[in-house]
Specification:
mainly alpha
Length: 70
C-alpha cells in the first residue's frame, strides 16, 4: 500500500512582507542538526522582532548550492 502526502497550497497577497532569519551554512549532512538550532534561536528572540503578525508561524527557505564569499 502506498501513502500519499497531501499538501495544502494557498496564495496570499500582501503589500509588503519582510523576513527575519538566521543563515545556516554547514556541510550538507549537518543541516539536519543545525536548522533546528537556528529555528530555536529565532523563536527565543521573537520578542525582538517588531510587527510579527503571527508568532506561531515560521517559514523556512533555502537555496541549494549557494556559497558565500564571507
Amino acid at each position: 500500500m502506498s501513502s500519499v502526502k497531501k499538501q495544502d497550497i494557498a496564495v496570499h497577497q500582501w503589500k509588503e512582507l519582510k523576513l527575519v532569519c538566521f543563515r545556516v551554512l554547514c556541510p550538507g549532512d549537518e543541516y539536519v542538526v543545525e536548522i533546528p538550532k537556528a529555528t530555536f534561536l529565532l523563536a527565543e528572540r521573537m520578542d525582538e522582532i517588531k510587527h510579527v503578525s503571527n508568532p506561531k508561524h515560521m517559514y523556512g527557505a533555502f537555496v541549494v548550492e549557494n556559497e558565500s564569499a564571507n
